[in-house]
Design brief:
By secondary structure, the chain is an alpha+beta fold. It has 15 helices and seven strands. It has helices at residues 3-20, 26-45, 72-79, 93-109, 170-184, 191-205, 224-242, 247-259, 269-272, 280-286, 289-300, 305-313, 334-348, 360-370, 377-395; strands at residues 50-54, 57-60, 63-64, 84-87, 141-144, 160-163, 211-213. The strands form two sheets. A five-stranded antiparallel β-sheet has the order 3-2-1-4-5, with helices on both faces. A two-stranded parallel ribbon has the order 6-7. The structure holds fe (ii) ion (FE2) (2 copies).
């Protein structure tokens, strides 16, 4: 068994032993010690190992561990808000024991965490802070949600003004086409270009000192993914700002919105533009795009854990429906709920080969009706308020 897989197996054993035996029991002590040794053995070849748990995938560093696809503990870790574990230096045995204790405490405190259920504790939904220094009280071994700083109260300071303005965003569209072509030919995600597009869209959003939401109109069906990526990025930033996120987190949401459908580069174009309903086989191919997208993003840059989580989760509904299906019900990351609403709105508000674009009011009504079932009600409510305010701005 290779060292990262061995470490994860020993980790699951140590956590299981922690729930079976009391704190002083030798079996518990032994399991923790064996896991600690497995970590030290891993650190001989990789001083700073990191793991991300994305539903059915476990990602070690840049790569998904094929042997651990569908590993039940991956979903379990994500469920308790441990979507990422980073080891950044030598860990002492005491530090390691505290780490196990902390993760175990989350397991027993989280419904569906897999071991026990004694009420909620902490924030397992990824609403906690992103900064790794805040991931946990440890310094050498850190764990927690893949995340951003949670929404704060107070809302954005910039008033929205208009939507559907006739804008071209030609350079941004060109950059997105370049990003998709690079990814389609198995190159890494050109992150510099992606960040440049987001900076530029953020500027377009704030021209004239007020929030202007420049949504692109689809010119031809084969441009859908480009247009849609830009619109979802812009909408996600506007919504994140309206929810009170700080500028840095707003931009991270912009990157996540821009890259959320990247996995579609692996879906045959004839499926993406099929006018009729999809066969079960075609649907299966289409529904791979979230996990493909997450893998492409993480393989490109391990720092992009948040956009990868959003790519993976953006079709998962708040009631657990949607896809990819998961072994345990759990909340999606806060950023995924933001991008999800924006994604559905833009898809409904755009002409598709199988139906005409819905008017904005009809799309908003759809979102309103499906809040609590499909969408996070707070996020959906903020989105509807933001867009209706825009519409009123347009009328006045
Ligand atoms: Fe999608
Ligand atoms: Fe999408």
């Amino acid at each position: 068994m290779n060292p990262p897989i061995r470490f994860l197996h020993e980790l699951s054993r140590a956590l299981a032993a922690s729930s079976l035996y009391g704190p002083q029991h030798p079996a518990r002590y032994k399991a923790i010690n064996t896991c600690y040794e497995a970590l030290r053995a891993l650190q001989v070849e990789d001083e700073e190992p990191s793991f991300s748990f994305l539903g059915r995938d476990v990602v070690y560093g840049y790569d998904a561990i094929r042997e651990l696809q569908d590993w039940e503990w991956s979903d379990r870790f994500a469920t308790i808000g441990v979507q990422r574990i980073e080891v950044t230096a030598d860990v002492s045995p005491d530090e390691f024991a505290i780490f196990i204790e902390d993760v175990h405490a989350r397991l027993i405190a989280t419904p569906n965490g897999g071991i026990g259920a004694t009420g909620a504790n902490g924030d397992a939904a990824g609403r906690g802070p992103l900064q790794s220094e805040n991931l946990s009280r440890q310094t050498a071994i850190r764990f927690g949600p893949i995340g951003i700083q949670g929404a704060t109260t107070g809302g954005g300071s910039v008033e929205p003004a208009m939507i559907d303005v006739p804008v071209s965003l030609d350079e941004e569209s060109e950059a997105i086409r370049y990003i998709h072509s690079q990814v389609a030919s198995d190159e890494a995600v050109p992150l510099v270009e992606a960040e440049a597009v987001v900076r530029s869209l953020s500027g377009a959003l704030h021209s004239d000192g007020q929030m202007l939401i420049p949504l692109l109109k689809l010119k031809s069906f084969d441009q859908y993914t480009t247009t849609h990526s830009i619109n979802v990025s812009v909408l996600s930033m506007a919504l994140a700002e309206a929810l009170g996120n700080n500028p840095r987190d707003v931009r991270i949401m912009g990157v996540a919105g821009l890259l959320h459908d990247l996995g579609k580069v692996r879906v045959p174009p004839e499926i993406l533009s099929k006018p009729g309903s999809l066969s079960p086989e075609e649907r299966e191919l289409l529904e791979r795009h979230p996990s493909d997208g997450a893998r492409i993003i993480l393989n490109s840059d391990r720092r992009l854990t948040l956009p990868a989580a959003v790519a993976f989760e953006h079709h998962i509904m708040i009631n657990g429906g949607g896809y990819p299906r998961r072994h345990f019900a759990r909340d999606c990351h806060y950023a995924s709920t933001v991008v999800h609403v924006c994604d559905v709105y833009d898809a409904l508000h755009t002409d598709r080969p199988y139906r005409a674009a819905w008017p904005s009011a009809k799309a908003l009504h759809y979102i309103e009706r499906r809040a609590e079932r499909e969408f996070d009600p707070v996020v959906a409510g903020a989105f509807i308020a933001l867009m209706r305010k825009n519409e009123r701005g347009l009328e006045s």
